[in-house]
Amino acid sequence: MDCSSLSLPHRAVVMSSTFCSSGTGVSTVGAWNHQNELATKYSRSNVDCSSPAFSSSCGISSLKFHSGFRDLSIASSRSRQRRMKGRGNGWNRNSLKGGGIVCTAAGVDRAVAADEFVGWLKEQEFPDQVVSIKMFEKEGLGCVATRALKAGEIALTVPENFCVTAYDVNNHPVVSAPAKGRGDLIGLTLWLMYERAQGQASLWYPFLKLFPEATNSPLLWPSAERDEQLRGSPVLAEVKERIAALEEVYEELSSTFFDKEPRTFPAEGFSLTAFKNAFTVILSRASYLPSADIFALVPYGDCFNHKGDCEAFLDFSTEDEAVVLKVDRDYRVGDQVFVTYGLDRPNSDLLISYGFVDPSNPNDYLTIEVELLEADRLKVLKQQILQQAGFDSPQTFPLFPDRFPTQLLTYMRLSRVSDVGLFAKIVFDQDVMIDQANEYEILMLLMGECRVALQEYTGSSDEESRIANDKKASIREKLAAQLRLSEKKILINSMSALRNRLAPIRGIPVKGGGLKDPNSDLLEMFDMAEQIASAPSKFLNNIFKK
After folding, report:
1. Over the range 475-493, which residues count as b (16 or more CB within 10 Å of their CB) and which as e?
2. Model pLDDT for residues 104-123, shown as the tens digit of each residue
3. Cα separation of 469 and 483, whole Å?
4. Which residue intervals define the domain SET in the entry (predicted)?
5. Which end of the chain is more exposed for a tag (fewer CB within 10 A), N or C?
6. 46-48 and 27-28 strand pairing
7. Distance, CA of 388 to CA of 370 (rounded, Å)
8. CA-CA distances (angstroms) from residue 474 to 229, 479, 480, 481?
9. Where are the domains of the chain?
10. 68 and 13 in contact (C-beta within 8 Å)?
11. Minimal CA–CA distance to 45: which of 438, 404, 326, 483?
12. For 474-493, what is each residue's pLDDT tens digit?
């Protein structure tokens, strides 16, 4: 199987709907950029509205909801070796000094381990840095400025021979064979499993001591707890898919290597649990270096904490032959220095890849996938229009808590047009309504999709907030509540935006001086359906109040 599909770093949430509204604090994003650039592309032309996100099939086009998790396609290791080699002779034990600190990752004092790690780096002649590692009460390990820093200044320089990359994995005497052709993340996972199995004998031990045994990623949650905590969220299907893929890879490795060579791959260190644990650690600790097109474990560099509005990131400098970090803002002495773990990463991605949720994530989004209907007699002509504008069928769009792409609305308007004469009104770079009937139909369908999506969740937003702030709740309960809350926010804001956009369309003057809804019969049926759907929860709420 193609293990590069396990490169969990980012997926997109798929929801079926399309809407746009301007009036509820939501703005429209414009052009788009697939996968990693998905959110960025549309951020240049957005509709100001209350957020978006839903999925399903409405009779016009196919719509689906997904989490914002994105896949990173990994180039072959061979092509990267010329750009960044890593340790090079990393498997010559004489290349590292010392390393015999007896301690296990589980239960270790991370502050003490950090001090020992820094001391170990100095023994390896690691260059002095203008940041230092510090233990924070909430974030854990982080980095602070040891002197004032200006935006654009290099705050960290890690020579490439201190990094662990696919080059090191490919030249490893033990894990190179099972890692062959399996992608960077799987290769680094096998490297970590091997080094962990060596215990204190590993020359990388001071570095590995800083790693957790595993993360809080839902990839590791017990199935019953996972299904319960992620119920209603599109992340649940994504997690199940990734777990199945991981287990398939492990079965292949086990039958081909682990079971056949138990002395080389001891059961305790190469079990399925050990494999999954190591994989989540690599997901959270490995940095993607775009200039080298490679994932790397970067000592010291992996101690920086993420901040949603930060644009600074680790990257490889061919000039310095090192991984460097240029800060994106000024810092004073003692300030914590932040990085981004990836621009435009939604909370679903952060949870799966890193095991945390950012309640104030400015880049959170769900994605919606739209598609022309096969039965549409004008489908061929519509596809030509889409292709000329750079779109496909199906097509994925991001939906944010405060905005969504104008192109999403245009796409949906086109999907509902039945008169060829109206094709001339299709404009993808502007928010242009075709006619009221077309607009009304689209917005009403989207409103319905939002309601359906919200009903998939159990509990109200107030209940989610209570769990997220409950000191007695487990970390998984809190994380799941934060995720559900952020996804509900997108849906609720979207519905608010839709209502604002529908307001001027719903009413038309009548002789009596009032306003009559041109689609009053449809609206009455729509509102009745909403009341019926919410009746069970209202009944139960009334029971508990007595």
Report:
1. ebbbbbbbbbbbbbbbbbb
2. 355 568 889 999 999 999 99
3. 13
4. 129-342
5. C
6. antiparallel
7. 17
8. 11, 9, 10, 11
9. 110-354, 366-519
10. yes
11. 404
12. 999 999 999 999 999 998 99
Confidence of residue 363 (pLDDT cuts 50, 70, 90): confident
- Give the model's confidence band at 367: pLDDT under 50 very low, under 70 low, under 90 confident, else very high: confident
Give the C-alpha separation, 437 to 506, whole Å: 10
Q: Is the model more confident about 232 or about 3?
A: 232
180-218 pLDDT, tens digit per residue, is 999 999 999 999 999 999 999 999 999 999 999 999 999
Q: Does residue 417 sit in helix, strand or coil?
A: coil
N-terminal to C-terminal alpha carbon distance within the chain = 57
Distance CA 72, CA 38 (A): 12
Find tokens 């009036």 and name the residue.
23
Question: How far, in Å, CA of 51 to CA of 36, rounded?
Answer: 20
Alpha carbon distance 546, 544 (integer Å): 5
The span from the CA of 294 to the CA of 75, in Å, is 8
For residue 26, what are its two tokens? 């939501």
The closest alpha carbon to 451, from 411, 497, 491, belongs to 491
Token pair listed for 190: 């096998």
Q: 97 with 124: CB under 8 angstroms?
A: yes
CA distance 414 to 425: 9
| Position 38 confidence tier, pLDDT thresholds 50, 70, 90 | low
Right CATH for 110-354 from 3.40.50.10490, 3.90.1410.10, 3.40.250.10, 2.40.50.100: 3.90.1410.10
Tokens 């960077």 sit on residue: 184
Average predicted confidence (pLDDT) for the chain: 79
- Buried b / exposed e over 526-535, threshold 16 CB at 10 Å, is eeeeeeeeee
**pLDDT of 50:** 37
Residue bearing tokens 């019926």? 532
Q: What is the pTM of this model?
A: 0.78
Q: Look at residue 26 and give its three-state secondary structure.
A: coil
The 3-state DSSP class for residue 411 equals: helix
CB 140 within 8 A of CB 110: yes
- How would residue 138 be classed by pLDDT, with cut points 50, 70 and 90? confident
Task: Say what the pLDDT of residue 513 is.
Answer: 47
Stronger pLDDT, 524 or 248, i.e. the higher one: 248
* Residue 320, token pair as written in the block: 């310095």
Helix, strand counts (H, E) of the chain: 17, 19
